[in-house]
Specification:
Length: 235
């Protein structure tokens, strides 16, 4: 395996699968299977998952929610998704531990870097919920932060698109894919890969990123093995 320790970022929307809302049990089981497959290769893995399939704080503000309260609701949505991933992993015999950025035992264990790294070394998947625990920060930023904290070799962003394109390939048929691109070029081109805070964190702390399609079974293992799929983003 090319990478020993990774941070996997999953979008909440991806958990919807074919549904319009919530969690698709088939998609959840597929993800759990891919995650266990990689863990069995000896790869240590932290996971951050969004909450957009349940509630997105930023869009909530446009509907009258207070921004801070809306973001806190979004944090709770990530806890629901994290518990779902945890349950799916437990069901197939993969050890895991849910950490929360805000105190809410017994739902999850309050995150500390030391406990998270300890869990990874024990062969557990560390699932990080509640984002950073602060409003005004996305789960992309949380993924970059946790990836840096656990000293991950790479941040993997599993999406429904197979990489970074010159434009949204779902809206523009002429969009072309990058095999690799720098964080600076993403910024100058105005590409929406992650928010600027997350991009800056990765760049300044030299945490490379791979954007790939997680919805194709086996792709996570292919990325970990060093296959040239997705887009490699570097300093």
């Amino acid at each position: 395996m090319k990478y020993k320790r990774i941070l996997l970022k999953l979008s909440g929307e991806s958990l919807m699968g074919e549904k319009q809302y919530g969690i698709d049990e088939t998609r959840l089981a597929e993800y759990a299977k891919q995650i266990k497959e990689v863990a069995q290769q000896g790869v240590e893995m932290g996971i951050v998952i969004g909450g957009g399939n349940i509630f997105r704080g930023l869009s909530g503000t446009s509907k009258g929610f207070d921004r801070v309260k809306g973001d806190q609701m979004g944090m709770l949505a990530t806890v629901i998704n994290s518990l779902a991933i945890s349950s799916a992993l437990t069901a197939i015999g993969q050890k895991n531990r849910v950490f929360t950025a805000i105190r809410m035992e017994p739902v999850g264990e309050l995150y500390t870097n030391q406990k998270a790294v300890e869990a990874l070394k024990n062969g557990e998947i560390a699932i990080f919920s509640c984002g950073t625990g602060n409003p005004f920060f996305t789960t992309d930023t949380a993924a970059a932060l946790r990836g840096i904290e656990i000293e991950a070799d790479i941040l993997l962003k599993g999406t429904r698109v197979n990489g970074v394109y010159t434009a949204d390939p779902e809206k523009d048929s002429t969009a072309s894919k990058f095999d690799e691109i720098s964080f600076d070029e993403i910024y100058f081109r105005g590409l929406r890969v992650m928010d600027l805070t997350a991009t800056t964190l990765c760049k300044e702390n030299n945490l490379p990123l791979i954007v790939f399609n997680m919805d194709i079974p086996g792709n996570l293992k292919r990325v970990i093995s060093g296959e040239n799929i997705g887009t490699y983003v570097h300093k």
